Amino acid sequence: MELSVLNISGVDTGRKITLDEGVFGIEPNNHVIYLDVKQHLANKRQGTHKAKEKSEVAYSTVKLKKQKGTGTARAGSRKNPLFRGGGRVFGPRPRTYDFKLNKKVKQLARKSALTYKALNNNIIIVEDFDFQAPKTKDFINIKNNLKIVDKKSVLVLANKNNNIYLSARNLKDSKVLTVSELNTYSVMNASMLVLTESSIDVINQTFGLIKE
Fold first, then answer.
1. Residue 149 CA to chain centroid, in angstroms?
2. What is the rounded distance in angstroms from the CA atom of residue 181 to the CA atom of residue 160?
3. Residue 81 gets which letter from DSSP?
4. In a structure prediction context, what are the per-residue pLDDT tens digits for the chain, which is 212 residues long?
5. Residues contacting residue 66 through CB under 8 Å, at least 6 positions apart
6. φ, ψ for residue 47 (rounded to 5)?
7. Which domains does the chain have, with CATH numbers?
């Protein structure tokens, strides 16, 4: 697939870039996309939930009533989960939701996500740019020029650029990532993928390492 390179004013520069078929033109695998997104969301879960069980509730252990003769069920202490304020049965405990995913599966998932964006014509390539200082207004102007101001977008850079990152940080529908930070969830969650010209080679080197 061949795409035109635009400048930040949205004007065609006359240059074209050919996307690597081994990264942007594979047979997409929906299941590995699901697994990679599932792992990404699972890793974001804190897992700090906790409820006190019977042994942890601060109540007296004195027997409430005699064992027999009351006509009601026997009760050993106020910690009983059946009583108000008692411990919870099998309550949540702190845990991690992380699970392992093989490197080849993650690579295939990322390439499948990039392929979907290419197939749907949801990729824009812009020439490299920089800001003198962080300014959200300048970033919004670029989105206006590219006609994606009302769309959820991900800008992919070859290397970290603090000024660009800070300019987009306050925009809930915009995200700035480097190639090394690019993940399947971010690609699939965005309506448009904006790649800088220099990031193409890095993407090809990073995601083209493992061949199908």
1. 21
2. 10
3. T
4. 889 999 999 899 999 999 999 999 999 999 999 999 999 999 999 999 999 999 999 988 888 889 999 999 988 888 999 898 899 999 999 999 999 999 999 999 999 999 999 999 999 999 999 999 999 999 999 999 999 989 999 999 999 999 999 999 999 999 999 999 999 999 999 999 999 999 999 998 888 754 44
5. none
6. 70, 30
7. 2-45+98-207 (3.40.1370.10), 48-96 (no CATH)
